[in-house]
Design brief:
Blueprint: H1 2-22, H2 34-42, E1 44-48, H3 52-56, H4 77-86, E2 91-97, H5 126-136, E3 140-145, H6 159-172, E4 181-183, H7 201-211, E5 216-219, E6 225-227, E7 242-243, H8 257-262, E8 269-270, E9 272-278, H9 296-304, E10 312-316, H10 327-343, E11 353-355, E12 377-378, E13 386-404, E14 413-421, E15 427-433, E16 440-459, E17 464-465, E18 467-471
Parallel strand pairs: 1-2, 1-10, 2-3, 3-4, 4-5, 5-6, 6-9, 9-10
Antiparallel strand pairs: 7-8, 11-13, 12-17, 13-16, 13-18, 14-15, 14-16
Helix pairs in contact: 4-5, 6-7, 9-10
Length: about 475
């Protein structure tokens, strides 16, 4: 009887061990909400700076411009969205109100709006046309609404915060459909009375959440996503999606630039970076800058240093005085899309066998070859170092290695390196990096090998990977990126 009981206990322990090996790792630290995950999976969105500055040539308007200065001769938001969709962008964010206070919709809270302009006899509404165009082309619609207002005489007084809330309500209340991102600029300068405003950020964020609960809020400190800390198109080579926000606020009170650029490992708040950069030298369209539209090689560099470094890319492509995207900008976007399609057309890891430690049958190393994001590899609890070896049936030539963590469980990997097997049977290192996050694209020398070894050197918790893929880029020299 006793031996039978011991046998039962033994098999029960084996069963419990087997079950524990099949269970997913517990979430580690701050993790993205479903909205934040869906936002990062968009990868690239279009930014459209459009307003009186388009017609004056200014970057920051004064707020004293006559409303009639805004008069696009042939506004066509469907041309914007068709261009965006063809270039592979998933959403469009428009500067609905920049610092000059001019509203691209007939805001009942302002006298400085399209309703006071001669454009479409004062009956026009850019937000209406763009939101409908986004819906027609299956893109998401987002808005930039600056709290700084150089036109409103209430700016600088306590009552302005209430007025700004009503401004938000007139856009986010449902009349333009779902808004996927609310972009808050932290700029805080003097208004028409010479005073500066003390912004009520908790009130502003609560208003967005109340009216658009699925919207991701951008600012220097989130709460949905954060500024990357520069406008050059560069996320940090080490880049955590977590950020320490206690004691900070948008604008002058934001974290240091290096913190925005690289995040804070193990911090309590999830706020992945958004990399905003313009295809032109300035943010608003100027005819004089058309010869300076960024090259395809420059855009590829930005892609690798934003999307390829655990960030979302928000590329500004400003409409011109007609209300259309310039032909030069549009052509460059199509060339950029064609380049990405060519580079990432074939995953050169196809057919590989993958070996290494694993948590159990649900989390095998081979899962990293799947394109199903929810099928991932993981290590047992407490194990933070591991080597995965990829063996190929024939030599493979590549210079791009793509890695993705399963971030619904948090960001974990802190350091890794890559080796290839030489013809002499020795391992040679080709890259050493730090973070992975949602997506990391490692630029390596062009190499040919029959085996690749990925070594995770350090992690905050047992690591996960949902994808490892190899590609060959013949258009952009890796030396240019370093």
């Amino acid at each position: 009887m006793r031996s039978y009981t011991l046998l039962n206990v033994y098999f029960l322990l084996l069963l419990l061990l087997a079950v524990s090996c099949q269970s997913a790792p517990a979430p580690y630290g701050a993790c993205p909400t479903p909205q934040q995950l869906a936002w990062q999976q968009m990868e690239m969105n279009l930014f459209c700076h459009f307003g009186p500055n388009t017609f004056t040539g200014a970057e920051w308007g004064t707020g004293t411009e006559p409303e009639d200065i805004f008069n696009p001769t042939d506004l066509d938001c469907r041309q914007w969205t068709a261009t965006a969709r063809s270039a592979g962008f998933k959403g469009v964010i428009i500067t609905a109100k920049h610092h000059d206070g001019f509203c691209l919709w007939p805001s009942p809270e302002s006298v400085h709006t399209v309703a006071r302009s001669a454009w479409r006899e004062g009956k026009g509404d850019v937000l209406r046309e763009l939101s409908e165009a986004c819906k027609a082309d299956e893109l998401k619609f987002g808005v930039y609404i600056s709290p700084w207002d150089r036109n409103d005489p209430r700016y600088g007084a306590p009552e302005y915060n209430g007025a700004f809330v009503r401004t938000l309500e007139s856009v986010l209340g449902g009349q333009y459909g779902p808004v996927f991102e609310q972009w808050f600029d932290g700029a805080c300068g003097e208004g028409p009375t010479g005073r500066r405003q003390v912004y009520d950020w908790p009130l502003f964020n609560e208003t967005v959440h109340r009216l658009q609960p699925n919207a991701v809020i951008f600012s220097d400190v989130g709460p949905g996503c954060r500024w990357v800390g520069n406008e050059a198109g560069q996320a940090g080579r080490t880049n955590w999606s977590t950020l320490e926000v206690e004691g900070f606020e948008p604008g002058a009170g934001s974290p240091p630039t290096e913190v925005l650029n690289g995040g804070t490992p193990g911090a309590s708040h999830w706020a992945a970076p958004e990399t905003d950069v313009s295809i032109r030298p300035g943010w608003f369209w100027r005819a004089s800058e058309t010869p300076q539209v960024k090259s395809v090689q420059h855009l590829l560099k930005i892609y690798y240093e934003s999307v390829g470094r655990n960030s979302l890319l928000l590329l500004n492509v400003p409409p011109d005085t007609r209300g259309r995207i310039d032909a030069v900008d549009s052509l460059r976007l199509m060339e950029f899309r064609a380049a990405l399609d060519q580079i990432f057309a074939e995953d050169l890891s196809s057919g590989a066998s993958v070996s290494g430690d694993a948590r159990g049958r649900r989390f095998l190393p081979a899962n990293v070859l799947s394109t199903d994001y929810d099928q991932y590899w993981a290590l047992p609890d407490g194990q933070t170092r591991c080597t995965l070896t990829f063996s190929f049936p024939e030599p493979r030539t590549f210079n791009r290695v793509l890695l993705q963590e399963y971030i619904p469980l948090g960001q974990r990997i802190a350091a890794f390196h890559l080796d290839i097997l030489t013809p002499e049977g020795e391992w040679r290192q080709i890259a050493r990096e730090t973070t992975v996050g949602y997506k990391r694209i490692v630029l390596t020398p062009t190499v040919t090998t029959t085996a690749l070894r990925l070594t995770i050197d350090d992690a905050l918790a047992c690591p996960t990977l949902t994808r490892v893929a190899l590609y060959q880029d013949n258009m952009y020299c890796e030396a240019e990126a370093n």
